[in-house]
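Can't paste images in this forum, so I'm doing it all in text. The chain is below; anyone willing to post the predicted C-alpha cells underneath?
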Amino acid sequence: MIMLKKYKLNINIFLVLSLTLLLILISCNKKDNGVDEKQRVIDSLKSELNKETDKKLFDAAYNLMQDHSYDMAINKFREMKSKYPYSELVKEADKNISLCNDKIKEIYKEEKANLDILIKKCSKIDVEDAITELKSFENSDKPLDLKNIASKELEKYEKEYEKVKVEREAQKKSGIQIVSVDSEWEMSGGYLDRPLLTPHMKIKLKNISTSDIERLEVIVQFIDKGKQEVFGEGSDYIIGYSDPPLSPGFAKTAFITCSVGFKSDLAALNLPSLTARIFIEPKGSDKILFKEVSVKKTYMGMDFDKK
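Text version of the structure:
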C-alpha cells in the first residue's frame, strides 16, 4: 500500500475548504452579481482541481498496476517521472516500475511453461484438435515471441492435416473410418485360373456413424507411378445384400486383389512402384476417395524394395 505524503493531502483539504468558503462568501457578499459570479468562481476552482499533477499521474499508474495492466502502468509511471522529475513520488514510482517488471517476468515464465505443456499435448492428440488448440493460443493475448512459436507449431500441424484432409472429409461424409491398411504381393488365381503375382490389400474399416451401414463396397485403383497409368483394379463388397449390417462402433476388413499381375514370381525382383487409391461406396452414395497409399514391394515375407 503506497503511503501518500501528508502535504499532498493537506493541499487537497485546503482546496476543498477554499471552495466551500468562497461559496459562502459569494452567497453572503455578492448577492448583486447573482448566479454568474458564483458560477465563475466555481468554474475557476474546478479548473484548478482538474489540472494534471504528479499525484494524479501517479495514482493513474498505480490503478493500472492494480488492474494487472503492468505495461501500461510502467508507461504511466515513466510519464509522471518525465513531467515531474523532482517530485517526491519519483522514488515510489521507480519502486512500482520494478514491481511491474517482476510481475511481467513472472507471467512470461508461466505462459512459456503453459506453451510447452500445450506443444507436448498437441503431439499426442488428433491433428484437428491440435490445430484448434494452437489457433486459440495464437489468437490470445500472449507475449509475441510465444505466439510466434505457437504459429510455427500450427504451420506444422496444418501441413500434416493437408495430407489427411481428403480422408477426414470422406469420414465426415460417409461415417466410415479407415482404421488400417496393409499391402503385399501374392501369387493367386488369375486369368483362366493361371496363378498371377498380384498386389493385395487388407483394409480395415470402422463404422463411426450413429446408424447401421447396410451396403458397402471398397474399390482400389492401382496406379503405376513410373508410367503414370492405371495398373489394375480390385474391389470387395465388404457388406453385401446377404450380409448383416455393420453396427455403429464395429469394424470389418476388406480383402482386395488386383485384377492384373505377372505370370512369374520372378517379377518380384523388379516390381513396379504402385500407389493404391482407395474408394468407398456406401449404399445410395457415389464413390468417395478416401486416401492414397503406397503398395509395399513385399512378397513371401521379403521386402524387395530393399534388395
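The CA atoms of residues 5 and 88 lie 8 Å apart. Strands lie at 176-189, 195-207, 216-224, 229-239, 251-257, 274-282, 288-294, 298-299, 302-303.
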